[in-house]
Amino acid sequence: MTATADATESRTYALPERAQRPSAAEGEVWLIPSGDLRESANTESWGAQQELERQVTEAFEAAGARVRRAFEADPEFGHGFIRSQRMGMEVFRSIPTDAPLVVATANWQYSHHVLAGLRTHRGPILTVANFAPEWPGLVGLLNLNGGLTKMGREYSSIWTVDGTDDWFREGVATWARTGALEHDASHVKDLPALADTPESRLGAALAEQLLEDKAIIGIFDEGCMGMYNAIIDDELLNPLGIFKERLSQSALWAEMQTVSDAEADAVGRWLTDAGMTFRLGTDEATELTENQLRWQYKMYIAALRISDDFGLDAVGIQYQQGLKDVCPASDLVEGLLNNLERPEVTSRDGERVLWEGKALPNFNEVDEGVAVDALITNRVWSAMGMDPATTLHDVRWGEDFEGEYVWVYEISGSVPPSHLPGGYAGAEGWRQGPTFFPAGGSTINGVSRPGEIVWSRVYIEGGALHADVGRCRVVELPEAEVTRRKESTNPEWPIASVVLDGVSRDQFMARHKANHAQLVYADSAAAADRALTAKAAMFDRLGVQVHLCGDATVLQS
Ligand SMILES: C[C@H](O)[C@@H](O)[C@@H](O)C(=O)CO
User: Fold this and answer.
1) Do residues 473 and 501 make contact, with C-beta atoms less than 8 angstroms apart?
2) How far is the CA of 52 from the centre of ligand 1 (A)?
3) How much is the pTM?
4) 143 membership: H or E segment, kind and range
5) Is the shortest distance between the CB of 330 and ligand 1 below 6 Å?
6) 39-62 vs 166-178: helix crossing angle, rounded to 10
7) Is 313 touching ligand 1 by the criterion CB < 6 Å?
8) Alpha carbon nearest to ligand 1 atom 5, residue
9) With a cut of 0.90, is the ipTM above it?
């Protein structure tokens, strides 16, 4: 009997067909927009995106270049954003690999929709945002830039309020001509060798302790909203003595079911007694309700119990995907965890008060750059006897006010109440917007009190961890101006009016490698300088490369 013929004997195989890409045409610039994964956000911000694309197209035409959009808007969806990673990959198949490419961003966008294509694109890349309050294009841009920086892909970046300013138009013309754009970075210097001071000794000692004893950051579902820059690989994280506990938001939801209404309601009573107020209504779809609050209180208790189970040193909840469809947002929980003074929670058996009188550092949107920063800040500030309550803020917008550039830093949900005037008395809970949070939930809304701040950002560049550190002040603006700024952005979110010391708007935008900046108050300007020195020393001893921005100085005697 003869053996059956081998199917591959002919040695002719089905080779994959390769996509035929158009070739780049002289004087042609390609344009793509990256969108949100949430269609509600895409349809609502589509008008703002069209306006930005009009401004960008006009600026390129004035510079003698043509703009070609890589695909048309889809009438079925009612917008022309790239709305998923898959769609991004498909769109990139039609873009010449060596074409000059603009990513225009007028909204909050999910960077991973376009990072796959950008990673292998060979032509020059320009990221552009509208510097406008209503839709956070610049927040999206800063995240994208952080992602490109982490992956080591060269890019240029520019932003504009309305497309008419010379700085923007000249920048576009320069990039169209040369494929590159340099920004002023003269405000940044590397950390000098630190003298032996009480602060440098404290930083080094805390670093040694972390390296020896190690710490765990608990991550309820890693990776939020395509923020590739906010994921720190274990290989970079573990050498700091910090390890991840990977947890699931479904476990959080399950634990929430075990918390009784009575326990949840006690949290609510504590907050009300402390002076916090809530804007309550009855329509679940658009208003904050008692029912939503009760679920948030259950989440607060559940988060602390699970953190206790795993012996966590800091915790983050992904929350914007998955969890937001199941239950009210976690923001209220997150602001409380970061605060020293907060409702008491016991272990399940009622025997132990969890983190009694202490904050459990929380990193919103599971941003691991924030996790490292919050953990270190908590330890330095606690050792110095200062309030360690720290939070990220979105770098949301800014404008001159009476000759000074005042940023709108605005986290998408909550700050620790100690950042507000009068603490809980300065906190008002508003419903999270239905566009992003169908199941609602309360924010911790308010206006951050004036004070001396250390700001920072931990990020990845060149395969290593870096920290930009600087000094700023939260300033008090007239009420009407604060209201205008809040209403131009998201009035349900807490705002900090920030003046950066020695850093201009464009220097900050060009340098910053994330949509988030970390803020913590110090007791005075002198205390802030001392704390900054200790924090820089701790980073330094851990092997994180520290850069001092603007007027930040370290004490050398
Ligand atoms: C709700 C929005 O998507 C926000 O969450 C977004 O702008 C951010 O906060 C990004 O950090």
Assistant:
1) yes
2) 19
3) 0.96
4) helix 137-150
5) no
6) 80
7) no
8) 412
9) yes
